[in-house]
Write a structure and sequence with these properties.
two-stranded antiparallel sheet, 14% strand, 3 helices, globular, alpha+beta, single chain
Length: 91
């Protein structure tokens, strides 16, 4: 039996007004995305439902308004983990 495919999507926020998909990959590419994120101290959230929704968005495309709430939850978690406040991402 083939192991399940590994998927990863990277979200970038701070350079644009809206979060954007900055990378996407499956299997080996997903592992490289996750490895690089961890190497750079980027927090990794594992949320299969959000992953499925974000898979509908192309790389370098803004997150659509209907996903703002879901992405905001992840960003709020990251802010809290890093001790950040809104606006700190602009630095």
């Amino acid at each position: 039996m083939k192991p399940p495919s590994r998927e990863a999507i990277a979200i970038e926020y701070g350079r644009r007004q809206v979060p954007v998909i900055s990378a996407r990959g499956h299997d080996d590419v997903a592992e490289r995305i996750l490895s690089e994120a961890r190497r750079q101290g980027v927090h990794v959230a594992e949320n299969p439902t959000l992953l499925a929704l974000l898979n509908r968005v192309d790389v370098d495309e803004d997150i659509p308004p209907e996903l703002y709430n879901a992405v905001a939850v992840v960003l709020a978690w990251v802010y809290w983990l890093k001790g950040m406040k809104p606006g700190d991402e602009k630095r």
